[in-house]
Amino acid sequence: MQLLQTAEYLRHRGVCVTIDAAAPPERFDLVHFWGLSPMETLYPAFSRAAFSGRPVVLSPIYWNLGRYYAAMGSVQRLGLWNGQRPLRRKMAVLSARIFISGEKEARALEEDAGMPLPWTAVPCGIDPELFGREPPGPAARRGVLCAARIGPRKNQLALARQCALRRLPLLLAGPAGNRAYLDRCLRFPGVEYAGPVPPGRLAALYRGARIHALAGYAETPGLAGLEAAACGCEIVATGEGTAREYFGAAASYCDPYDPGSVGAAIDSALEGAHQPELRESVLARFSWETCLEPLAEVYQSLI
Prior knowledge:
The protein has helices spanning 2-12, 39-50, 66-71, 75-83, 85-94, 103-113, 128-131, 156-165, 179-186, 199-208, 223-230, 243-247, 259-270, 277-285, 288-302, and strands at residues 31-34, 56-59, 97-100, 119-121, 144-147, 170-173, 191-195, 211-214, 234-238, 252-254.
């Protein structure tokens, strides 16, 4: 979604944008890479672009996943993650500019690279026309919504367990990247699955939920949380990522490695009274047009 919104914004500004991972870099004035995986195909393409004479920029969407893989007991993935560190460092060093979602992401990437990096903050944004309509009041809302890809890294299982303990209905919305994991979540009472949801319907789900929760192991910051806040939800956000730079004290934060912390954040959100001030803050600060202005300025300076 970030990539598509960025392309649309740049086109409105008169920039010719092509989204094509296989296109030869020599065709373009600037090449912009998104993400840091899959490294086996990404790094060769990045290297070719970097040595083509064209400026290369990077949106890494980075968080150090070493702790997560260690906690999950995934020795193979942890080894792969650590083994790819030199390639991540080379990509960072060869980038004319790195676009990050918040300072915490930048510091984590610099720690991984072992050096200062040329970064510019480009916050995530939302579509005010889609998510900015006046929402219903608290009396018309119920339960918890989690709009995210279904899988262990998003930690919906802990969320399902904590909601069930509190007899709170939980609605999961998003593609099921791991069907077996989804089935485990659905065994808890009160948990339902809406499937992959298009943006228009997702806005309606946000407006019907009391709380939106992203309790995953890495969010930078979690676009769905911003959209839900604009639609009037109280917010539960993970402490692993940049969410605090967006919501400040107006959200309830959890440690995804501590199930009790997830429950405590839900309890805090149930007592929360951050709306409508949170909604107004998000709409004022995080429209796509406002957030992408720094990126457009960097493009102009490099071309």
